[in-house]
Amino acid sequence: MIIIALIIQITGVTLLYQSWRKPNRHVVKNIIAWIVIMASLWPWQQEMGWEYGTSLWFLAIPFIAWVFTLKNREFRSQEAPQRLRKHIRPDKKRFTHAIIKVVIAGPLALMACFLFSSFISQILNHSLGLAQADHLILNLVLLLLLWPISIYWFIAKRVDWRPIAVLVTFTLSGSIWLYG
Amino acid sequence: MVKFMASLKLSKTTVKKSLSAHRNVALATAGLLYLTCLTGALTVFFEEFQRWEQPNIEEYTDYTPAQIDTAIEEFQQRVSSTPETLWVVLPTEAVPRMHISGDGQEWFINKDGSLSAPPLEVWTTMLTKLHVQLHLPENIGLILVGILGVLLFSLILSGLLSHPSIFKDAFRWRRGRQVLTQVDLHNRLSIWALPFYLMISFTGAFIGLLGLYSFFISAAFYDNDTEALLHDVYGGDPEISKVSGVLNIDAALQNLTSIAPQADPIYLAIQNINTDKQYLEIAATLPQRLIYSEIYRFNADGSFINHQQFSDGAVGQQIAYSVYRLHFGHYAGQWVKIIYGILGLALSVICASGINIWLARRKHESLLNDLWVATVWGLPLSLAISALLPFYNWVPLWVFLAAELIVVVFALFMKQALKTRWLLRACLAATLLIIVVRQEAVYLNETVTPMFHQVNLTLLVASLILIMMLFQQRDQCRA
Q1: Do A152 and B20 touch (CB under 8 A)?
Q2: How far is B323 from B149, CA to CA, in rounded Å?
Q3: What is the pTM of this model?
Q4: Residue A56: its chain B contacts at CB < 8 A?
Q5: Interface test with B, best of A17, A118, A151, A158 (most B CBs within 10 A)
Q6: What integer is the mean pLDDT of B415-438?
């Protein structure tokens, strides 16, 4: 069954590669390729069970795709330009700005995300009647999804009113719900 | 699909801001992230390294209750006070060794039940501690590594949003040009193993930040009672229904076979040993399940009490107990470990190539070029040196730190990043060869585990690959 799963998965990635190579990449061929790749999940799960099968399906894809990437490699030599050595002094203004961002995206965002994820998981707990373990793990999972997203957002944005407003809303909504 | 992707096209401003966020977070965390990824890729094989470090311990996969009884008896004779919990780790296909531990004391168990040598705590322990807690105090180190997991997750997100053509170029690899080679290497390694990197960063953050989260949650909902919180997630101690002074491991193992025939025991924990409240916990893996283990509880006489419901309890409980094997790659056999090792190394290459792109796009060179070479090639070299010198009773952590310091000073003194890189690779190849020769020479006349030769062979192959790379790039040494 594993061999069948691998054959289907290789076929899917081959189709994807062929559709990719064509100058006008056709949407239907591309979708068929992805459907074939998705279909290989079934024999993986039949042989290895739902948990092992899904993880092995994910693990196999990069190795098949990298073979096609290697096959498609091109070589064009170019001399690296000569570069001078320079001693650059750190910019104090940028450094201060970076510190502010670290504080916002670090402890402040963590607290805001913790309070907001607690707020969301409490609402779900009240409406769905979750088991206590489910409630606690849902809270942690939400925190671990919200925090990286907010780090990206706070670092990408300038220090302006919008991220701060979201931060304050997250913190207040969670605080009022929990302690209010 | 292409048209669909095109309809989702990101604005130029979003791409620019995402790229800026990706670069800033990467520059701030590159060194630590690279160290964590590299040590993580090696830590997947910690069991193999432990067997390689101590290759002459008796190995077997079958055991008897009588053998366990003898080991417990001898353990109690050796220690001054009886520990509250006594652990007997059973042999498995992955690690065919049995050991007993309690209150920080530990010995391997021979096939006849007598105690053998204590496990060495040298290089492998140093390596795993470096990955898990960066050799900082346990809580601080774990939290810091957990935060690195969060930052890696954030980097993946900003990476996706800052590279609008990452799907369009999914099979492209342009070699030969300094920046493009690094860009394509970085993007191709990233995109195809994206689910793995998301999973590894998420589970790493989960494991690392669980302690901090418990602290927050117990303060918010449990009146600072962390024990009560852990009770809700992982379950509490059982009620002992039968008091018995004699521990009947044989009966417990037989009962386990009838209760859960598919369960494969991995360790026993004897709680409150030699007291009226003593009971036995048998942790066992279940086929095709990612949970670390199910725990079956037995009275001292071997009668069944209950199981902890990691396999069939609340979904949250099952998730909480599944992240460990998923992060370590310790499931579904040796091949998964090898895949995890390769993907872990790929993640290290992504870290290195990301900074290489930034360095190559600058119009000048500076100390940062030298420092980055000292990090990327100095860390594996320092790890290799620290694996070699402990055999002469040197403390591996200090050897590792001293070696890395010397490499940094050397790189700053050389001021030629390419030449330094070539020389560090040469040193790494030589060190790996010396390790193999030294290990084989020391254990030449002893009976050793086959794993010992397999690890040596892997190190030899790694050394030969490096030598080939050195030979191809020999002009860099003359530069």
Answers
A1: no
A2: 13
A3: 0.92
A4: 332, 336
A5: A151
A6: 94
